[in-house]
Design goal:
The complex is a heterodimer of chains A (about 110) and B (about 110).
Chain A: E1 5-7, E2 10-13, E3 19-24, E4 31-37, E5 44-50, E6 53-56, E7 65-68, E8 75-79, E9 88-95, E10 101-103, E11 107-111
Parallel strand pairs in A: 2-11
Antiparallel strand pairs in A: 1-3, 3-8, 4-5, 4-9, 5-6, 7-8, 9-10, 9-11
Chain B: E1 4-5, E2 11-14, E3 19-25, E4 32-38, E5 45-50, E6 54-58, E7 61-66, E8 71-76, E9 85-92, E10 99-101, E11 105-110
Parallel strand pairs in B: 2-11
Antiparallel strand pairs in B: 1-3, 3-8, 4-5, 4-9, 6-7, 7-8, 9-10, 9-11
The chains are: A mainly beta (about 110), B mainly beta (about 110).
């Protein structure tokens, strides 16, 4: 069974630029999560989808972050404009109905 | 009060010893609990899930859950240097089905 796929793996941008991350969950997993993990901290949930509907986006900075999950499968997370404090690893995870989560390899974002 | 609390460590144990990692949570209605291992520069990987009070064993790992005291622990028997990593506790909160992670405990197993 293929795992969660993410791209790109690394991205370096300047502040005020925009960036987008892509995630393809495990086949059949209805729930998809985007996390931000800053060095030395635990993952922080940004947004959670159930199929293509948003379950929780309370910690998503909506003035600059947006996410969508079209057709209940792939998802994209966008940051526009980026700030220095957005430098982090962005993790995508999927699960089957609120059970164990499986993580992708993550995207390491550096904002200069 | 943080929703899921873990001691950040590092917790250092000698090779072959038992490592004990602890986690407390604030939402008394939580029903699902997980332990993830995260090596430096890698993404978290699931080790154990536990849903009912008591112990659950899987190889060298034992998860313990006490809902009355609101804590969950992970024991690693016969610790190996390859167990050196950050261990993340995660809890699904009641009602919202929101996954909440602790900050993780860094474990060092000394050869």
């Amino acid at each position: 069974e293929a795992g969660v796929a993410q791209s790109p793996r690394y991205k370096i941008i300047e502040k005020r630029q925009s960036v987008a991350f892509w995630c393809n969950p495990i086949s059949g997993h209805a729930t998809l999560y985007w996390y931000q993990q800053i060095l030395g901290q635990g993952p922080k949930l940004l947004i959670q989808f159930q199929n293509n509907g948003v379950v929780d986006d309370s910690q998503l900075p909506k003035d600059r972050f947006s996410a969508e999950r079209l057709k209940g499968v792939d998802s994209t997370l966008k940051i526009q404009p980026a700030k220095l404090e957005d430098s982090a690893v962005y993790l995508c995870a999927s699960s089957n109905s609120y059970s164990e989560q499986y993580f992708g390899p993550g995207t390491r974002l550096t904002v200069t | 009060q943080k929703e899921v609390e873990q001691n950040s460590g590092p917790l250092s144990v000698p090779e072959g010893a038992i490592a004990s990692l602890n986690c407390t949570y604030s939402d008394r209605g939580s029903q699902s609990f997980f332990w993830y291992r995260q090596y430096s520069g890698k993404s978290p990987e699931l080790i154990m899930s536990i849903y009912s009070n008591g112990d659950k064993e899987d190889g060298r790992f034992t998860a313990q859950l006490n809902k009355a005291s609101q804590y969950v622990s992970l024991l690693i028997r016969d610790s190996q240097p390859s167990d050196s990593a950050t261990y993340l506790c995660a809890v699904i909160g009641s009602g919202t089905y929101k996954y909440i992670f602790g900050t993780g405990t860094r474990l060092k197993v000394l050869a």
